From TrEMBL:
Signal peptide: none annotated. It is an enzyme of class 1 (oxidoreductase). GO terms for molecular function: monooxygenase activity. This is Nitronate monooxygenase family protein. Gene3D superfamilies: Aldolase class I. Keywords: Flavoprotein, FMN, Monooxygenase, Oxidoreductase. Its EC number is 1.13.12.-.
Amino acid sequence: MALKTKFTEVFGVEHPIAQGGMQWVGRAELVAAVANAGALGFLTALTQPTPADLANEIAKTRDLTDKPFGVNLTILPSINPPPYDEYRQVIVDAGIKIVETAGSNPAPHLPMFHDNGIKVLHKCTSVRHAVKAQSLGVDGISIDGFECAGHPGEDDIPGLVLIPAAADQIEIPMVASGGFADARGLVAALALGADGINMGSRFMCTAESPIHQNVKEAIVAGTELDTELIFRPLRNTGRVASNAVSREVVQILNDGGQFEDVKDLVAGVRGNKVYETGDLDAGIWWVGTSMGLINDIPTCGELVSRMVTEAEELITERLGGAVVETVSASR
Ligand SMILES: Cc1cc2nc3c(=O)[nH]c(=O)nc-3n(C[C@H](O)[C@H](O)[C@H](O)COP(=O)(O)O)c2cc1C
């Protein structure tokens, strides 16, 4: 048996499961393992310091898998923006066929991707942005609820409402993101009108994820209560692990501090140190509320096949079994 949806059909992937871009984490080892498991992994372009490094990382991923995979291009407002056009050129030249865009309007990038036969899955956090991206001609939507790791937006609408509200207006394939970590979430997403799911935190806590074992063990030990929302007063909310640094950032900003006052605390290099050294208080590191559902460190293959098998059982047995014939009282 297999779960076939609009998403698996249009994006040419075996299972309706994606691994979204993850700064510092979305590297060749993880993305290849996700691809080999039959799901859709995305390399994170900006984790690579230069466009040439991205070309090398794509080549490295290809050495590890023959299956399709994509590249995430996160476009965020920045004082010194990275050379997005050069990263985009590398993606095209490397023959990548699927891109996940995130962070802002994908319009400037669409013509070049589409002219080169690249399908675009646009990640957003609100129904209005999903509708806008659909009207721009993207090939699929990934919609992140308030539960998610990373940037949940400022509307605070959890997936239980966000996904069906989006499904009412989205006709192209749509994957639900934020808070998904097991078969129950996958089945729920399909029931809510999505064509699959996207997971970050769950894939981050797998054997092949290229981060320190301490971080994986912290995710297993953590609960759904162990995240903080940083940058709320700046209206650029980020959901991260609760630790000494993130709690300090929340405190400073709540007390009226500005970005300048927390800039050093939230520096990306400090965050990367957490993943590299396993020092959980070295900086900010990203994880979602789905931490409360993550209880082990499986291989990507074990994770995906377990989720798909359990989802099929859930649909055919538990849910199918709840539908019973009723006998009319009048007879
Ligand atoms: C460590 C980490 C880093 C992330 N970095 C990015 C990023 O650079 N770009 C992006 O679009 N999303 C990023 N995300 C968000 C994920 O792609 C995904 O949308 C999110 O993790 C889904 O929520 P979940 O963690 O509950 O599965 C990141 C998530 C994590 C856990």
